[in-house]
Design brief:
heterodimer, A: mainly alpha, about 75% helix, B: alpha/beta, Rossmann fold, six-stranded mixed beta sheet, globular
Chain lengths: ~325, ~250
């Protein structure tokens, strides 16, 4: 697909979502926001997993630092939502710098286990610092306030703030993937040693990818706290880190749109299955199995391959 | 007097009791195509690994263009102009041939950290990549995936990636390993041409004696961590010790 066509599709998606925000009922709005938040989380995450080839189990904790950073500022300092989000993202960035500094020295299973360890530490801090974090209750009573004079208290209004950050994320990730930096990250995934022998300080680039994905995790977390008007300590649990992994896998690790498509499938499927059965995880697992085993490269990866086999064989290796 | 391109002083490296470099002292002069030969286990690859920064030296010093590089990480050595290729194919398999060369070019032109600027818009980078691909005869396959290249072409790409960093000193670790005779002649022609153009000084580790003696200005023979002979091809060919070591006899000092 050429880049103009791709741009048009994404513009249409944003416009479609904007129209949805004007006409949809509260439930659909809520689902739309959940999808967009998960997509922000997963698209940032996939820069680390799909692009750089690093599997982290610590991003749930980074999501939570975003949520708690936002909530603390909101409850104690100012109800301004943008300052709250800024604080959440800043806290998540600081945490990912510290965690990343230690983790990027290692790769593969050692990297994964280190991120898991740090994630568990953050989770237990949130769980035990009751005075500060509310312990197992989380922080409650987050108000949304208004942005530039526009109220965002209602879901129908808040929706557009989420949509704005979702569009911003799409644009930023798209630029990052197409930049020199994005190519270097692919090089690190493909052949870490060779990248270093190409004159690249590999650890610094790994750290950069880690922090960038942490920034988006923090953004998703702070918006999530505003959406639910409370924070959930279990969002810091390492099992929450599985969400962006699954979503990226379902949609396609090596594609730009994969985490986005995966987020839609994940949120919608979960909602539908939950209506029919308490054991939604069982049935979700079965469907996941089918997608992962049946479509290597995920939904979008599989679709791309099928398109390429069509009349016009595309040139470039990494597509939309 | 200008300083030599590379100066090695009292370099030592051992793996347990196996000594792969024993008090090595030598220099490499710019423009002299040097080959390092020796029987299996002589320490040739280890020497390259230590000089290129893949392995740390036990003791001793390495100077590159007068600057000490003994403890520098690899990417810093590459930036100074010391690069290498590998014995086994070591490319970016799922990236295109163009992208394979683009990575070192971006690093060399200090453009690797551009976060948001589309890489396709880096015109100077693109030109330099095509230059390297033309020099290595791979321009026609620029948009193909690296893993789809023939083995010989992958070895060429390997050299191309190393050259793209604009090194003044380039180590080639068995550049003809696993190649068929046609590919072998081809790559040697390329190396000779690139060496003659004068930008890069080549140091080659090789098994094939025909190649070594036809190509090199200087031959260093390594055996069990010692340099047992060093000089022009004719001098080395006539050396008794070298013959004995290649005939498999023990060399008793």
């Amino acid at each position: 697909m050429n880049s103009k066509g791709t741009h048009a599709i994404y513009l249409a998606i944003i416009l479609g979502l904007a129209v949805l925000g004007l006409v949809a009922d509260r439930f659909v709005l809520y689902m739309g926001m959940r999808v967009m938040l998960l997509a922000i989380f997963a698209m940032g995450y996939n820069l680390l997993l799909g692009r750089t080839g690093l599997l982290s189990f610590g991003h749930g904790a980074l999501y939570a630092t975003g949520a708690y950073g936002m909530a603390l500022v909101n409850l104690h300092l100012t109800p301004d939502p943008l300052l709250g989000i800024l604080a959440g993202v800043a806290l998540a960035t600081a945490c990912s710098l510290i965690v990343g500094f230690f983790c990027v020295r290692h790769t593969e299973i050692y990297f994964a286990m280190l991120t898991l360890a740090f994630g568990m530490m953050i989770f237990s801090l949130i769980w035990n610092l009751r005075e500060l974090t509310g312990g197992d209750d989380g922080l409650v009573g987050i108000s949304r306030g208004s942005v530039l004079g526009l109220p965002i208290a209602k879901d129908g209004q808040f929706y557009f703030l989420v949509l704005f950050f979702f569009a911003l994320t799409l644009w930023l990730i798209h630029r990052l993937r197409g930049s020199a930096f994005g190519l270097i990250l692919a090089g690190i995934r493909e052949n870490n040693q060779r990248t270093s022998f190409a004159g690249i300080p590999v650890k610094s680039y790994r750290l950069a990818a880690f922090v960038i994905s942490g920034v988006f995790a923090g953004l998703a977390g702070s918006l999530g706290a505003m959406l639910e008007s409370n924070t959930d300590p279990f969002s810091a649990h390492w099992s929450h880190s599985a969400e962006p992994i699954l979503v990226s896998l379902i949609g396609g690790l090596q594609t730009f749109s994969g985490p986005l498509v995966g987020s839609v499938i994940f949120v919608v499927l979960r909602e539908i299955i939950q209506r029919f059965t308490q054991n939604w995880m069982l049935w979700f697992g079965v469907i996941l199995l089918a997608i992962i085993m049946g479509m290597r490269g995920g939904v979008m990866g599989g679709l791309e391959k099928r398109l390429k086999r069509g009349p016009a064989p595309a040139g470039k290796g990494e597509g939309s | 007097m200008s300083s030599p391109l590379l100066r090695v002083e009292n370099l030592n490296k051992a793996f347990g009791k196996v000594v792969t470099a024993r008090d090595l002292n030598f220099t490499v002069e710019a423009g002299v195509l040097t080959s390092i030969i020796g029987p299996n286990g002589a320490g040739k690859s280890t020497l390259i690994n230590v000089l290129s920064g893949l392995l740390p030296a036990d003791s001793g010093h390495v100077y590159f263009q007068g600057e000490e590089i003994t403890h520098l990480p690899t990417h810093r050595r590459v930036r100074l102009g010391l690069c290498r290729s590998f014995q086994v194919v070591n490319v970016f398999p799922h990236l295109t041939v163009f992208e394979n060369v683009e990575i070192p070019v971006l690093a060399q032109m200090r453009k690797a950290a551009h976060l948001f600027r589309p890489v396709a818009r880096e015109k100077a980078v693109g030109q330099r990549v095509m230059e390297v691909l033309e020099r290595t005869n791979l321009a026609g396959q620029a948009n193909g995936t690296a893993s789809a290249l023939s083995h010989g072409d992958q070895r060429l790409l390997e050299v191309g990636i190393a050259l793209a960093a604009k090194p003044s000193l380039l180590f080639l670790d068995e550049p003809t390993a696993g190649m068929n005779p046609v590919e072998r002649v081809d790559i040697l022609r390329h190396i000779r041409r690139l060496s003659a153009s004068g930008e890069t000084t080549f140091v080659i580790v090789e098994h094939d004696m025909d190649i070594v003696f036809s190509l090199s200005d200087r031959v260093m023979v390594l055996n069990r961590g010692d340099i047992i002979c060093d000089g022009g091809p004719d001098h080395v060919k006539g050396d008794r010790q070298v013959r004995e070591c290649y005939l498999g006899e023990e060399v008793v000092a």
